[in-house]
Every structure is written in C-alpha cells, then in structure tokens.
Amino acid sequence: MGKSLHRPDYYNPMNKKILLLGYGNPDREDDGVAWHVLKGVAEGLSLPLPATPDDPILSFENRVNFQFMLQLVPEISETIAEHDCVCFVDAHTGDITEPVRAIRIDPKFQKSPFTHHLTPYTCLELADSIYHKKTEGFLVSIRGFSFQFEEKLTDKTSQYSKIAVVLILDWLKTGVFKEIGVK
Amino acid sequence: MVAQKITIEPVTRIEGHAKVTIRMTENGTVDHAYLHINEFRGFEKFCEGRMVFEMPLITPRICGICPVSHHLASAKAGDEVMGCPPPRTASLLRELMHMGQVIQSHGMHFFELAGPDLLLGFDSDPATRNVIGLLAADPELTVKAVNLRKFGQEIIHTLGGRRIHPVFAVPGGVNKSLHLEERETILKELDESIRTIEAGLSIMKDWAEKNAEDINKFGVFDTGYFGMVTPENGLELYEGNIRLIDREGKQLECFDRRDYLDYIAEHVESWSYLKFPYYKKLGYPQGVYRVGPLGRLNIADKIDTPMANAELKIFKSIGNGRPVNQTLYYHYARLIETLFAAERVAVLLDDPDIMSNETLNTKHDFKGRGVGVIEAPRGTLIHDYHCKPNGQVEKLNLIVSTGHNNWAMSEAVDSVAKTYIRGPEVKEGMLNRVEAAIRAHDPCLSCSTHAIGEMPIVAEIVDFEGNLIRTISR
Predict the structure, then answer these.
(1) Contact A141/B at CB under 8 A
(2) Model's pTM, two decimal places?
(3) Is residue B64 within 8 angstroms of chain A, CB to CB?
(4) How distant, in Å, are the alpha carbons of B20, B23, B109, B133, B446 from that of B8?
(5) Domain at B85-220+327-362: CATH code
(6) Which of B330, B438, B452 would you mutate first to test chain A, the one with the most A CBs within 10 A?
(7) Could you read off the pLDDT of B341-353 as tens digits, one per residue?
(8) In chain A, fewer beta carbons within 10 Å around the N or the C end?
(9) Which of residues 191-250 of B touch A (CB under 8 A)?
(10) ipTM of this predicted complex?
(11) Is the separation of the CB atoms in B416 and B437 below 8 Å?
(12) Do B132 and A24 touch (CB under 8 A)?
C-alpha cells in the first residue's frame, strides 16, 4: 500500500477504513480488468496514477487504501482484517451474465481442490477466523471476454470497467453500495 | 445397474482446465479412471521474437502459482545464451529467492490443501474439511502455517522488490544486492519457520503411523524417478545434473541438463492434451517417471543440511532399500524439502559472499542456445532457448513440472478410483480421495488467470448411452 494523501471529507462519508483489493493478471487481457478499475478509481479521486501494476496507489490518510495482486493469498487476510470494509475487484466469466456485478459477500470457505488460489469469500473467512475481524465484504466483478497474452482490455470489458469505476466512486462518495446482480 | 461414467470437472477458462472421468462397470465397480488435462501451449509462440533479456520478465506470466521458478529458469537459460555465467553472489541470491518460493509453495500446500484431509480425515464433513476446520481444530498451528507462507513470500519480495513481476534475475546475474538489515530480517523469522515445519513433520509422521493401511493402498505403483542432484547425489533444487533412477532405485542416467532431449521423449494419448514424458531408452510406458518432492527424495542419497538429512533417513527406511512408491508420501517428502529449504536459507545467509555487490557479469560471449533448469516446487522445470545473434528468441521449448508427472497423476487417479469407489452410491469421501490423488502431486493446473464465475467441481454420472443420471456438485 502507498503513502497517504489528505483528501476532502466528502469522500468516504462512512468514515470507515476501506480497502480496494483488485486481483488478476494484467498481462492476460480481460483478466487484468481489476487493475484498470483501480486506476480509474484513483483517477476519479484525483490521485497520482501508477504507471504499472507494481506501483502503489497513494491512499487518503489510510482511510481508502488500494492494493493490486496477481492472485489472492492467505496472508492478505491480515491486511483485510486491518480494514472495516474490503471491496474485491475481479473479472468474471461463465454463468455470470451481467456486464458488471456488484454484491455484498459474507465470510465463507470455498474449496479449491487442486489449486493454490483462494476466493474473496475464503479470504474474508480467514480474516474472521484467524484475526477475529468481521470485515464487511463487497465484490465488484466485470465481464471478461478474452484472456490471451495481451495487456489491453477488449473493447467491451474496457467499456464495462468504466461502469465499475463509477459504481465504486459513488459508493466512496455516498456510502451507498449499489448492488447489481445476484449472489 | 447400468454402466456409467462419472466426471469430475473443475471448469476453468483456459489452461487450468482438467477433468476426471471415471467409467464404471455395470456392477458398480470402476472400469477405468482418466485424468484429462487441457494444457495451454500458446505461450511458447508468444515468446518467439522476444529478446532473451526480456524472458525472465515475460515467463513468470505463465503462472500465478510459481512465477519465481519460471523467472529463475529463464534467467539461467539467458546466462547460457549470452555466455555470461553469473558471479557467485548472484547465484547465492537467486537460490535464496528460490528457497523462499519452495517454503511458501510447499507450506501452503501441506497446511492448506493437504493438511485438512490428513488432520480431519478424508471422510469428514466437507463443509469443515478445509483450512477453517483446521483452524478450529488447531488455531495456533494454522496461524503459524499462514506465517510460514508469509516468511517465504517475504524472502521473494525482499529480493524481487516488486509484487507482481519480480525484476531481479537477469542474464548474467541479478540486479540487486542484499542489504544487512534485509539479511537480519530474514534471519529473525527463520527459527519460528523451522519450528512450524517441524510441527508439520510431526503431524505427518503421526498420521502416517495411524493410517498405514490407507497409505499402502492409495495410489501405490512403481515408476522411475527424476530430478536434480548435487555432484555427490545429494538433494539439489537450484543447480546440478539430472539423475534418473529405475523402479528398483538403480541409477539409469546422470546427465547434463543441456542434453535432456537425448533422454526424454513425449508420448501422446488421445484422451489428454498434455503429453506424457518418458525415458527414451525404456520406451513408453515402461520409461515413465515421477518428479517433484517424492521423485527428488528418491533420487537423492543424502541431504546436505542436518535436520532434513535426519528426516531423509527415516523416509528412506520406508522404502526398505527401494524407492518410496506410495503417492501419499509426497506430503512427507514435501515437508522434508521445506525443512531443507529453511535450513538452506541459513546456510546461504551465512555465506560471506552473499553480501557482496558483485552481482552481475557484464561480459558476454554469445552462445545462441541456453538451457535453464530448476527444481520448481512441483518438479523439474526446463527452459530451452535458441536465439539469433542479436539475442532475439527464435525457438523455445518449455517442459513444465506438472507435465513430467502426467502419467503418474493419471495412474494415481485410476488406482485410487478402483480401490475406493464402490457403486452404486458414490459417496463424497470417495471422490475426495480421487481428488487427493491429484492433490498429492501438487499439480499446477491452475493458470495465471482466475476470474470468478467458475463452476465448482462437478461430478456427472452418465450411463453407457450418454444419459445424465446424476450430478454431484462440490
């Protein structure tokens, strides 16, 4: 996470410590949409823009923090537990038909039988179980269409990512999280 | 009861796609079980035309699970292509980063993927047969397990500097030296990490003692074993020759990594996209072998760190002079390697050369071809580059660890399915054992992309006419 900047009070009226946690592979086209969304939110908040996914995004007095990862890992639960709210940002495919889905999520272990990757639900559960912190969870996901070795988003996903940016900015400004789609 | 087919299919998007099909007979026993893997091979094409010095940055993108292994194997291949062997300090630092990768990957696998089966039982409630259930059963251990992974990850971050794409190893060395305070920080956490690994070993051995019957019928079969060794045939994860032993433990070959194509060929089966490597002289399937922790400990005569070597002696006693061939002992071997990696961190940090600033060899003597091999957590990883005189990659061959184990994973799935599945009712615990047979090998089936919306594991039972009889959703 980056250094802190002072911002006007009208952001984050919830007065909660918020983590925007994007994850995905920015080198695999739409899989990296979360990186673009985080950058869009930073831009919307007039924050200095990071040049690469490795560069930190400066936060507001540590009240709204940004983090981007290639994949979710168990130790991120410690960071989650340091926040009141976490908003995961990812791509989605398959059965989820909405261009953008925004839902509240609860702690719940989800099995990943063969792989090392974790889900947002599991990370929340780990934060609760290990650090006894019930961090409020949100998940904003954007429909992805292509996952080849490219750094750019497809046109559709790029368009949808802007909707996600507006949705997150509205939440940060008003404190109201507009849910879209079903859990 | 009609003949039926059960399919276990974690539906992912691209190269992470794998599926288990269990074809049953009319009397409810298993006829045959298959593991199908859709491997994505587009990456080699993607790399053609890139400059060799870019490759250590590009190849980690293949995989979100073990990017460090690709990063280092690629840099090693680049050393050879450019004819610029790294200074000793650079090799020590690269190996240190590699040990961090082994600790974090093996630690996560044992405590978070395999541990729940062992500690809570294959047949325990799937709702709690996971790391959360483990936490309830032993909260202190679970927190330590998370910290163990974090320790390995911190070593990588300390050296790599960046979270997503490490910018560390380059052809000819590394671009960062180790600072004194970084060395001290790593050392401070080491003892606690070793204690956690010892706790894991204690759990594993206790479980093995109580579950000997299961271990001795769960995916037990003979193969050859393959991996890197020190010049004295000790366990080696970073740099060495490749040793291949037969089913009885007799050495078949010990060869220079550059010559791997003289010894390995790949067989194709119609039911899997992933090829099946085998030892050429014995042919397929007689020449199939296993890699990864079980393979490496079977080919090693010793380990050059004391605590891991003591464990190796116990491990070797299981085989009673022959290689250990029980699939579930992959877990024990994995923990012994984790202990070795932690001990090796101390050895590396105690080496006075590791603090030197001589980290890069800038003199080049272009060779054109380079083969970088590393023992990734899952097994031997080979990067083979052919480059034009300007350093542009003309052709490359990547053999990933999971590929070597393809036959063994399929065999384990078949063997476990035949041993444990008894129809007509297929219970969850039976399918969990089939999954555990794959899990033991810690395959890298997951890819570097992982968007949500994936289906859970689905087992489909289909009759001999293709009609869906039942769906088991996990």
Answers:
(1) yes
(2) 0.87
(3) yes
(4) 5, 11, 21, 24, 15
(5) 1.10.645.10
(6) B452
(7) 999 999 999 999 9
(8) C
(9) none
(10) 0.74
(11) yes
(12) no
